[in-house]
Amino acid sequence: MNQMRILDIKQSIYENNDQQADLLRQMLKDRKTFLLNLMSSPGSGKTTTLTQTINQLKNELKIGVMEADIDSDVDARKISETGVSVIQLHTGGMCHLDADMTKQGLSGLGIDELDLAILENVGNLVCPAEFDTGSSKNAMILSIPEGDDKPLKYPLMFSIADVLLINKIDVLPYFDFDLEACKDRAKKLNPNIKIIPICAKTGEGISEFADWIRKEVSEWNRY
Amino acid sequence: MIEVVQQVEAFAIENDAPKIDTLVLQIGELSSVVPEYLKKIYPMAIEHTLLEATKLEIEIIPGNGKCKVCKQVFNLLKTNGICPQCAGTDIELLSGKEFFIKEIICFDADDKDT
Ligand SMILES: Nc1nc2c(ncn2[C@@H]2O[C@H](COP(=O)(O)OP(=O)(O)OP(=O)(O)O)[C@@H](O)[C@H]2O)c(=O)[nH]1
Ligand SMILES: [Mg+2]
Ligand SMILES: [Zn+2]
Question: What is the pLDDT of residues B16-75, one digit of tens each?
Fold first, then answer.
């Protein structure tokens, strides 16, 4: 009779990715490239915000963008209109990007060429929060129509974000969205989070976001 | 899932494991991983790997939290994250976010003549 044996593995599935993410972050630091990971629900305004922000920064920083859409290149086309380099990442139906895919995207863009790499992650508030991409900093967008209770429903996303952009403030009068309550909820989860209300459509608030990026990029390159 | 299979393969090679029969995963109730989905894609993920023709077993770990105010321990899903004792919402997460490869069950094929 065959003998049954049980081999304990006890490995976290995230472990592997966490190691790769740390390696990638170190590599980015050595090459003086800042990687911003941008996350939100579908349609919150990632692409519109990026377009506006890139236009404010492209004359001072060499920028490259990675677009992670499940299977379209609409966003990549929009970004390429700004003149910066764009690469489309295929997630193969996955609901998030991991460090390995991000690394492949960066080599596609040519990491040595860039001061600022931006990753538009898959539209989803759950899975991207759980997988470290190796980014220097994480940004997230919450748009007014999504509701001010999102920090309560997706606490992990709000706790790993370094900056929270509250977008579509132009429609604030039409929605039952309590801006102050939303800020308080986010701060409670993450006291250090920087919160910037914006309207990506008109560009309102974008210069504050661009300033935040400038400051973070120079800190990243300092030591 | 493909990453999981690769991680198990690496482990099996490193530890010189005999023929694998079953892979056991542990998944927290509060993790974003959907057990039913994993079961569905498992046969595809193991094709042409060391895990080909193995079974998948999933253990669910309850999502438990501890109220920071009254120290009550309770299941977060059942109460929507609210303390059943004092209605507090400042909760320390104890378990439920796990996604672990727990173990592999193998059969030693040394006495083949049975
Ligand atoms: N009213 C208003 N609409 C906006 C604003 N920003 C973006 N939108 C609209 O919201 C829709 C989605 O914007 P996108 O920038 O494509 O959003 P996204 O997050 O990149 O979307 P996906 O990549 O599909 O997840 C578009 O119709 C935009 O015109 C804003 O500040 N105000
Ligand atoms: Mg987009
Ligand atoms: Zn309590």
Answer: 888 899 999 999 888 767 788 888 889 988 999 999 999 999 999 999 999 999 999 999
* A202 CA: nearest ligand 1 atom: 31
Amino acid of residue A30: D
Q: Is residue A6 part of a domain?
A: no
- Containing A130, the helix (H) or strand (E) segment is helix A127-130
B103: distance to nearest CA of chain A, Å? 4
For residues A91 and A73, the answer to whether their CB atoms sit within 8 Å is no
Cβ–Cβ below 8 Å for A9 and B103: yes
Which residues have beta carbons under 5 A from ligand 2 (an ion)? A 46-47, 75
- CATH number of the domain where residue A121 is located: 3.40.50.300
Q: What share of chain B is helix, strand, coil (3-state, %, to 5)?
A: 25, 35, 40
The pTM assigned to this predicted structure is 0.72
A68: Cα within 13 Å, side-chain hemisphere: 29
Fold classified for B2-106 = hypothetical protein PF0899 fold (3.30.2320)
- In this structure, the residues whose C-beta lies within 6 A of any atom of ligand 1 are A 40, 42-48, 75, 123, 167-168, 170-171, 199-201
Strands of the A63-67 sheet, one edge to the other: A85-88, A63-67, A116-120, A34-40, A137-143, A163-167, A194-197
Domain residue extents for chain B:
2-106
- In a domain? residue A4: no
A54 C-beta neighbours (distance < 10 Å), count: 21
List, as own/partner pairs, every contact residues B37-42 make where C-beta atoms lie below 8 angstroms and the sequence separation is at least 24, other chains included: B38/B1, B41/B1, B42/B1
pLDDT tens profile A162-198: 999 999 999 999 999 999 999 999 999 999 999 999 9
- Tell how strand A63-67 and strand A85-88 pair up: parallel
Q: How many domains does chain A have?
A: 1
A103: containing domain: 12-222
| Distance separating alpha carbons of residues B32 and A153, to the nearest angstrom | 13
